[in-house]
Amino acid sequence: MSNVETKMPPTYPMNGGEGPYSYSKNSYFQRATTNVLKALIDEAIIEKLNVEALVSSRPATIRLADLGCSVGPNTFIAMQNAIDAIQMNLTSRGHITEMPEFQVFFNDHAANDFNTLFKSVPPERPYYAAGVPGSFHGRLFPESSLHFVHSQYALQWLSRIPDEMSNRNSPAWNKGKIHCTNASEAVCNAYAGQFNKDMEAFLKSRAEEVAAGGIVVLTMPGKPDDVPYSKIPVCLMYDFIGLSLMDMAKEGTISEEQVDCFNLPLYAASPAEIARLVKMDSSFHIETMELLNTQSRYEGGVNAQEIVIHLRAGLEGIISKHFGSEIVDELFRCLVEKTREFSYLLDSSYKEGTLMFLVLKRH
Fold first, then answer.
1. Pairing verdict, β 61-67 and 101-108
2. What terms describe the molecular function in GO for this protein (predicted)?
């Protein structure tokens, strides 16, 4: 057990419970993505997953994991879709007499609202469910124990803010901003460097946990190699949060020092970055890597209120931890106004492909 990670990293859980600003009530954009990706994931499972190896032993158990599962219901939809596709794969080959058993592991930080998650687990489910608390930047499972790994809208979270960004004498001191959007080259390099470290750790851990022939499906915000962060819709929204915080600082609600010391640990990677990291690890082969267009939600104009509530469900926790919960309502009211004020930037932003879809196969 000496390899098991015991150091607790900082955590940024989504809003738990089932209230008006909860993640479970405000994750419909992610659910729409799950539905859009279903055909692509089905194809990956049917064409790439080595099912013969999975059922060669008896009794056969196929193990799936959803990393960064949050509180549902999207994780249940994704896992059910994956099991349906695996069963279709097995049935289509016509050489099994008995369907294997399925075990699904739901992983997120220990601070995640697992109570809400497991209260809403489908009662009629074709799998055994288990929760696995801990950071996916380290080991979570025994060696070669997983056959299908899924992670959606989770790997964009950095494990930490780089040390150089906490030093006011560093070129990476991000004064007046909270993200690498429209920031200095030093800040952008610090973000990229931390993402590289985190992705290396993620791939190394999964390489030890995923059995040969198993697949890993990853979905996260991404950006084309030649498009700046200031043209990516979600990164623009992070910038709007920073502008709203600076407005509040000028009004005296919070201090500029508080804003200067705060950075969102979120990063949108490019295909070139991902390809280089996978090649460096050498344990996986890239079966599919695409930047998908999921920006139809902006068609017909920006619904500022809808976008902001969605962001609040994911970011309220980390903002409250730094600034205090008493400023949250005002901040997101300001953000609605800021989003409306700069809606022309969202309307003209890059929408062709800002969702990274990646299928990796274990050698």
1. parallel
2. metal ion binding; methyltransferase activity
**How far is the C-alpha of 189 from the C-alpha of 157, rounded, in Å?**
16
Cα(279)–Cα(273) distance, integer angstroms: 10
* CA gap 301, 347 in Å, rounded: 7
Does residue 111 fall inside a structural domain?
A: yes
- Residue 201 CB neighbour total at 10 angstroms: 17
For the domain that residue 323 is a member of, what is the CATH number? Answer: 3.40.50.150
Domain assignment of residue 7, yes or no = no
Measured in whole angstroms, the distance separating CA 36 from the mean position of its chain's CA atoms is 16
The answer as to whether 16 is a domain residue is no
- List the domain range (segments joined by +) for residue 315: 28-362
Domains: count for the chain:
1
Is the torsion defined by CA of 87, 114, 66, 5 positive or negative? negative
pLDDT tens digits, 147-184: 999 999 999 999 999 999 999 999 999 999 999 999 99
Global pTM reads 0.91
